[in-house]
Amino acid sequence: MILYFSGTGNSLAISRQLAERLGEQVLPLNLAVKRDLSQERRIGLVFPCYWFNAPRAVTELLPRLQLPKDAYVFIVIPCGAQAGNAIWTVRRMLAAKGIDVAYSHKIRVPDNSAVGFGRNPNDQVWKFDRYAGRLERIAADIAAGVHRCHYAWWGLAGALCAIPAVQRRTLPMLTPAVNLDKCIACGICRDVCPQDNITIVDGKALCGTDCAQCLACVHFCPQQAVELNSKTTPQAHQYHHPKVMVADMC
Ligand SMILES: Cc1cc2nc3c(=O)[nH]c(=O)nc-3n(C[C@H](O)[C@H](O)[C@H](O)COP(=O)(O)O)c2cc1C
Q1: Is 157 near ligand 1, meaning CB less than 6 Å away?
Q2: CATH 3.40.50.360-classified regions of the chain
Q3: Is the pTM of this model over 0.90?
Q4: N or C: where does the chain have the smaller number of CB atoms within 10 Å of the terminal CB?
Q5: Where in the chain is the domain with CATH 3.30.70.20?
């Protein structure tokens, strides 16, 4: 079973690609906590790196998972460049549950956070071809039951990003807000939000306080009404994995 968390589809697409090669099924993490997975022989965790660490949404769900202690557990991080402490963090949390991670790796994919810095994630789709071979090697390693963990080099950046003063400056850069003048209340942001953090109130979308910063709402909004730092993301900069559509995220 491959469990994933995904905002713009990279982690979902990689989960599906691995599942196809390994004969596994995929399940979103927020549904996985409602299932008893203790009989699974192999568990995969696929999720993005946020701020050089594991997303809060993932670290909050992990303790609630019912996982087997003797399964082959692997972690794959689809990230823009560096996985930072994401693998370390999740390994440590699983170790506290008595679970060893057998295999972990990162894979570079388009960086969906680039929009927060005025850049276009679609300029990075070349990464899919560049790292296709790595994906095949990861799948082959997992199929062969290899025990090997990739450790990131950017642990220091992960530690810096965890400092509250740094977080106070960085988190707002990638925290979305709805521009009510542009919102047409189509409900897409509400449907793609993995945290159920968006509601439609009086014909307008409203963000709650449980944002995971996955940016699904920013990238999937057909009106470009979900903004970062009060700046519109142009349609040309909106990104989602080419094989993952709104319906896949709902
Ligand atoms: C809030 C936020 C922070 C991010 N931080 C990092 C990072 O520290 N390092 C990195 O390589 N990519 C970073 N990214 C890029 C994502 O890890 C990458 O685009 C990932 O594939 C998104 O997965 P998804 O499409 O499944 O949501 C960040 C993205 C977001 C939204």
Answers
A1: no
A2: 2-161
A3: yes
A4: C
A5: 173-249
Q: Which atom of ligand 1 lies at the shortest distance from residue 112's CA? A: 19
How far is it, in rounded angstroms, from Cα 73 to Cα 1?
10
Q: What is the mean pLDDT of residues 214-240?
A: 97
What are 136's two structure tokens?
A: 């095949």
Q: Which atom of ligand 1 is nearest to the CA of 13?
A: 26
DSSP assignments along 142-157, one per residue: HHTT--EE---S-HHH
The CATH homologous superfamily for domain 2-161 is Flavodoxin domain (3.40.50.360)
> For 176-212, what is each residue's pLDDT tens digit?
999 999 999 999 999 999 999 999 999 999 999 999 9
Give the Å distance between the CA of 148 and the centre of ligand 1: 23
- Interval between CA 214 and ligand 1 midpoint (Å): 8
User: In the structure encoding, which two tokens stand for residue 187, read together?
Assistant: 């409900």
Q: Measured in angstroms, how far is the CA atom of residue 48 from the centroid of ligand 1?
A: 5
Q: Which CATH class is domain 173-249?
A: alpha beta
Report how far ligand 1's centroid is from the alpha carbon of 45 (Å): 15
Please list the helix, strand and coil fractions of the chain in percent, rounded to the nearest 5, in that order: 40, 20, 40
